[in-house]
Amino acid sequence: MSRKLTTQVAEMTLAAWDLVCQECLHRPEIQLESLKEDVRNFLKASGWERKLQNAVYRELHVQPLPSHPAAPPEHAKEPLAYMRKAQVNWEKRILKSLNSMCTELGVPLARKRPAVEQKELTNKWNEMGTDEPDLSRFRPVYAPKDFLEVLISLRNPNHDSSEEASAKSHWGLIQVPLHDRDIPQMREAYSELSLTTGQLGIDDHTHVPPDLFESEHTRIGKKVVNEQDSAAAQQYSRQGCPTGLRADLWALILNSTNEPEDVMHYEQLKAGVIHHDLLVDNLIYKDVKLTASNDDYYFVFEDFLYQVLLCFSRDTAVLEHFSYNSATPPKSYIQGKVGVEEFAVVYPPNGVIPFHGFSMYVAPLCFLYNEPSKLYSVFREMYVRYFFRLHSVSSSTSGIVSLCLQFERLLQTHLPQLFYHLREIGAQPLRIAFKWMVRAFSGYLSTDQLLLLWDRILGYDSLEIVAVLAAAVFAFRAENLMEVTSLTSAEAVLADLSTLKVMPLIQIFLFATVI
Amino acid sequence: HLSRYAKRSTRVGLSVNTVPCTVKPTVTLQIGDAETDSSRPGVYVIDVTLPIGQTVNIQEISFKNYYTAYVSVRLLRRDGEGAAKWTTCLRNHCLMPSPHTEEGSQDYCSVYRQQMLIEPDNVTSVRLILRQPSSAWLNFSVEDIKIHPCLNEDSEWDIPDWLSDLTQVDQLCDLQGLPDPQTVSSSIQQMWALTEVMQTNQTTASIGRFDVDGCYDINLLSFT
After folding, report:
1. pLDDT in tens, A102-154
2. Alpha-carbon distance B94 to B75, whole Å?
3. What is the DSSP letter of A23?
4. Residue in B166, B178, B198 nearest the CB of A10
5. What is the pLDDT of residue B11?
6. How many Å apart are CA A385 and CA B151, to the nearest integer?
7. In chain A, which among 141-200 make CB contacts under 8 A with chain B?
8. CA neighbor of A424 nearest in space, from A175, A170, A168, A171
9. Which chain A residues have a beta carbon less than 8 Å from that of B144?
10. Residue A102 to residue B195, Cβ atoms within 8 A
């Protein structure tokens, strides 16, 4: 068991044991002979067994498999040496960029706020959006297209990439030989999405009588929420979550609680924002202003976004996820004591430097949760399970490199004419689809459709469906794309995805494609 | 001696002991002339020998993979009369589920005694036969080959496995249908000791401070 899980289990055992001693052991019905059974029944009835199960379930999902004893920690982050190296080089570029921004602007990376400023911020906490600071000097540290160039240049030094045409020659931009799945394998893996299984996003359409699927599915959903069962919620989510139950179901799947200690943790983070001013705060402001505030669906949540993202930057609990993330948090030294370990700190405190579009990971969640500490808790869990994989170089099957490769391979296998045509006109499909996948389609689909997609990400505990959807979108617009003669016109055909219905697209692509 | 039933020994999976041995240079197996043939070999053989006169009872062979798809292991064992004989103990063990793609290509691996077809005792030499059928890779090999001998019985680590204790103890002791008070009390004692540990640990739990004594003034990031 991981250390964190062991601690959690022990803490819960302590709490449960306390409860048992108080409530249970003095009761006449508890006999010595049946002590074990009686205590077990008591734990079940009081809900502790379920809580423990959910905690174990969460850890099993998040922690990677136990590694070989000889494997160093870096191997757990990323097993392939050349990917680790590429990630390190990419991080160096980001750090240099951030440092030069600091030096140019004469702004420190972090400073303590004077008391007056602290008071001002506390008063303005719920309406930070009304502030119009001068952000013109700040620029995003990087944009997705910069990251795409890094992925395109990834090479395995041990891979034979001689130019001979062969059955396995790859037409796309990603040139690393990661494993990908074909449609027959996906049909098995995503069997709940098949043509004969009911889906929210298809079978809840206004023309479909609710007795056929929707009513029963909602009834089961309510039961799952009542039982507070994480595993059941995850399985359930594969067929979509009803709007009224989605918030509870997602929180259950992510084992995200809003207990007093979570609220207190959030308040602590807020205090961290009040006391210290970080350069990344300006990057966050700028990002929100440029993306979410300009979006018809999300501009109303601007204040929430600041409240979540500024706190996120201060949350050292996020540092735990770096044990299985190929990335490493940036480091610095306070008071100029470079090299002195007692003065070493992580920057920002959560080790994550936001990039252009980062706030779009949070925006859709604002539709589900209106209490900042709850919204924060769910977002953080989504980030350390899924979103971090979209902007780091790794060989993980849910990582952005695998998603890009999966997308290109699906297209090449099932729409070869289209792929070839786009290549010929200088419109490599990945150059258009990358920005969708990096954001898991947030900001590109309409919100209700996006939430249906994210239901499946949670349900299957994988981002692979994002690559499938990207390929399905190209398949859907194939006819128009065959007519275009330039990258710009190809982009125009795919500029507006707001009318797309994701589940029919995915279902048709996976289950109706002729193979 | 009843209290011993309350403890179950759990073997730790890691053997830190290794025996000194020599890894001979890799031998290529290919058809045709190695000098003039342009295609790359798909089979390599690596011999690992113990110092002369020494034998080992193998617990585990560990190594780091580098793009090898399958490994077979043969052992040279000394029998009762001192004669040496080669036997296969592992046949085509898969290290890369898909030889054309990266999965498993750089993993740390171990082959354990329990997986072997024969008893790996009195071994003087180990032969690793590496196969990589895919032409996608320029090179393949295994690195850091280590042979771990069996540990003696005395030095096994005892880890009390109190989580499953209550079940085991119930089966072993049957004093007129009641559980043995001594075993129950020792289990409860262990649980209580754990809660004591947790209580003392709670104060050191991460409070989430990111500053050093209230200071978090940073000017530049550092990178090595």
Report:
1. 899 988 889 999 999 999 999 999 988 887 778 888 888 899 999 999 999 99
2. 18
3. I
4. B198
5. 35
6. 40
7. 156-160, 168, 176-180
8. A171
9. 70
10. no
